[in-house]
């Protein structure tokens, strides 16, 4: 069998494989990177504007606790509340950007959590009052009596008048305003009386001496008209 052999001429040129190409990482000047940064920045800006537009709440004053009609309103009675209100509706309530005018009082009762309407406030000096402290037994003090309430003060003498079988209560003060109902101090002893401070109009001061005489010698009872 004949075997054919081929020989390669050493002088003949050899085929050279082309170099492999590798993908390089894009530089910061790559247009694609610049476009991506612009798109991300635009999305962030758009999202911030959408969120800002969605927060259409208004900060207004609300009541921390029940406040009766005629009470002098103080900053400590108010809390900040954010609510969704339209333009015209928002103008009905006092915003937190407005401070209370000195001597502001309420024209009607407001409950805890209610928004403070502008129409419920009146300013200006009210009647001058003489503050009178009372010691009242808890059973003789209606639970509805709060600062600003209008009450009548009755006194039952310790001993009945001559010729009378039982002691009859007498009206000591009529239509007086409760200035304060101080909270009782911390004590383990049972509370026998509660202090209540009422304000007597100076026009009624002439009869104050007689009223104080009654209050010093009898059982004090406060009454309040409901409604």
Descriptive report:
With 227 residues, this protein is an alpha+beta fold. Among the domains are: 58-122, Type Iii Antifreeze Protein Isoform Hplc 12; 129-184 and 192-223. It has 3 helices and 9 strands; from the N terminus they run αββαββββββαβ. The strands form 3 sheets. Strands 5-8-7-6-9 form a 5-stranded antiparallel sheet. Strands 1-2 form a two-stranded antiparallel ribbon. The chain is elongated.
Q: What keyword list fits this structure?
A:
5-stranded antiparallel sheet, 3 helices, Type Iii Antifreeze Protein Isoform Hplc 12, 227 residues, 9 strands, 16% helix, alpha+beta, single chain
SSE sequence, one letter per element: HEEHEEEEEEHE
Fraction in beta strands: 25-35%
- Rg of Cα set: 42 Å
- The structure class reads alpha+beta
| Number of helical segments with 4 or more residues | 3
Q: How many β-strands, per DSSP?
A: 9
């Amino acid at each position: 069998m004949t075997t054919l052999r081929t020989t390669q001429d050493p002088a003949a040129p050899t085929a050279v494989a082309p170099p492999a190409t590798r993908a390089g990482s894009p530089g910061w000047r790559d247009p694609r990177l610049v476009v991506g940064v612009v798109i991300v920045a635009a999305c962030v800006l758009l999202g911030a504007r959408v969120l800002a537009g969605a927060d259409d709440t208004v900060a207004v004053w609300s009541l921390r606790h029940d406040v009766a009609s005629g009470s002098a309103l103080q900053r400590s009675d108010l809390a900040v509340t954010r609510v969704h209100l339209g333009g015209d509706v928002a103008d009905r309530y006092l915003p937190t950007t407005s401070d209370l005018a000195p001597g502001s009082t309420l024209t009607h009762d407001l409950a805890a959590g209610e928004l403070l309407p502008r129409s419920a406030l009146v300013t200006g000096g009210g009647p001058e009052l003489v503050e009178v402290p009372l010691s009242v037994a808890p059973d003789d003090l209606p639970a509805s009596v709060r600062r600003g309430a209008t009450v009548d003060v009755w006194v039952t003498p310790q001993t009945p008048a001559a010729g009378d079988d039982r002691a009859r209560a007498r009206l000591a003060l009529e239509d007086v305003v409760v200035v304060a109902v101080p909270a009782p101090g911390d004590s383990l002893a049972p509370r026998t009386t509660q202090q209540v401070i009422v304000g007597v109009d100076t026009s009624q001061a002439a009869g104050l001496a007689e009223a104080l005489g009654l209050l010093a010698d009898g059982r004090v009872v406060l009454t309040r008209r409901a409604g």
